Amino acid sequence: MRKSLFEKVWDAHAVRTLANGQTQLLVGTHLIHEVTSPQAFGMLRDLGLKVAMPHRTFATVDHIVPTDQFAEPYRDPLAQAMMEELRKNCASTGITFFDRASGKQGIVHIVGPEQGITQPGTTIACGDSHTSTHGAFGAIAFGIGTTQIRDVLATQTMALGKLKVRRIEVSGKLLPGVYAKDVILHIIRTLGVNGGTGFAYEYAGEVFDRFTMEERMTVCNMSIEGGARAGYVNPDETTFAYLQGRPYSPKAAQWDAAVANWKSFASDPGCHYDDVVKIAAADIAPTVTWGINPGQAIAINESIPDAAKTNVVDEKASIEEALAYMKLTPGAPIKGTKIDVAFLGSCTNGRLSDFQEVARFLKGRKVAAGVKAIAVPGSQIVALQCIAQGIDRVFSDAGFEWREAGCSMCLAMNPDKLIGDQLCASSSNRNFKGRQGSPTGRTILMSPLMVAAAAVNGSIADAREVFAVN
Amino acid sequence: MALEKIISITGPAVYVPGNDIDTDRIIPARFMKCIVFDGLGEFLFYDVRKNADGTDRPHPLNEARFKRATILLSGANFGCGSSREHAPQAIQKYGFKAVIAENFAEIFLGNCTTLGLPCATASREDIAKIAAVVAQEPTAEVVIDVVKQEVRFAGQTVKAEVRASARDALIHGRWDPIGELLDGLPAVQTTAAKLPYLAA
User: Fold this and answer.
1) Is residue A269 part of a domain?
2) Do A227 and B80 touch (CB under 8 A)?
3) Over the Cα atoms of chain A, what is R_g?
């Protein structure tokens, strides 16, 4: 029988069917971080259980680390306590911890691929909804809650119901100045923030065939913003080339066998999909959000929606709620909206290629007066690569603050936060109310180059115009 | 480990209207700087319930007449966003025993079930009927019947679906799967041995 990658990976990792009909699913790789794991270790101790496969569990610290302070203790004693708890839990159970002193620390979804831990045909779980990122490698990767982290720690499995599979094909070629971030914002805008509930998304088509691994990661990362718990791209030569030579990748003697095995997981041509959606690349423009969820997005040249122009009750209410919070004018262009902060980073867009692409255009330009701009590499390795290529200097010279690796202002569990109702042009993944740390703070999501354009312009702008992209 | 069989939930309800209520709104990230879940209840919906100076904003949970509510009613796509279990933990620790919404985000629903917190889906019209009764009479008893998949209130009965796997787990007292997962450990080894990346 022809199968999709999702079904193949699922079947290979299905241990048995549980009494309630869910599957006991083997989790090949468990990634943990400081925010969602301490309670799970506590539960484990309360139950007198051990970590089943410490060698398949990897930890790093990302949410709470200050990006302007390396030395401990941190100014925030709660952050320091979480750091120490993770260190203690890893040391006592034999889990590898990519601590800041290792030089390999970073956002968990950047570290896994960077180390070659994320591999095709595997299952991955992490107490973080953006775990879907790892699907870029043809892995099936799930965000899980803390009780499930306990389950995975104790048994290397979890109880899960099988998802349906929706194939999303993006055909043709993206226009200049249109990036992976625009592709996923466009997909979420089209299918809705809960359109993917119950589905895994298989991303395919010429656009994905041509995408680099980092671009695929950007798209898979935001699957959950469309309601899909997992998203993936079938593994191909791009995937294998990325993985070759990484610390946890199979070594020379095992490499060919591993690649052959990985290839066998790719979806069979003609396999069944529960749904198929086709999108033309040419229809995708640089996209920005205007509201309080990632589906509330428009092309940069469109106007902000007007509740008066719709008769759909739900839509009316959600536009009104969003615009009241965002303090934006219905029907006005989004272009020209003044910004206070520009944030470049996160597990969505904090990788080397994101900084390289921006640096190409930012050289010689200056951040507008009154705008606070911060650039936060997603990992210590990304930071080092940027420094080696002089990219950090381009950002500093332009007026960006160049920071240490971490989640930073994506979710503000660290000192990087919006103040009051500041408006932030952000390369992150969520524009929820209060997401960036101030209960009235406002977020507009966009690609890294659009963030740079907004920073330089002092307001939301079309990067193609600001930087003469063509 | 014997768990309670969750057959039905009975209590007063409160309606928190809105679609796409995300887990950042349910529990803002700054309250996740903790290594235990205790005490999260008081921060439930904090930023929509409180002003910057800590005084109350207009919100159903701030109304004295709804203080005893144990059933939370809301709109579509409830619990979207982050996988933080802090969200269902805050809801449970605040005192809620069940949630009724038009539908739920995937990870949130799973997290709730594992805590023995039933998530029942009902149509918008039916949620409006329950909300109307509750608004008139906040002490009205609302019964979520997990077995029959219905909600009974003020002499009315409406349909309320509970996902099959969750319903089974709740009514048979196996909503926390740890015991069953541990029982499967020998089979886990067998499955792992067949996978090159785990067998090595």
Assistant:
1) no
2) yes
3) 21
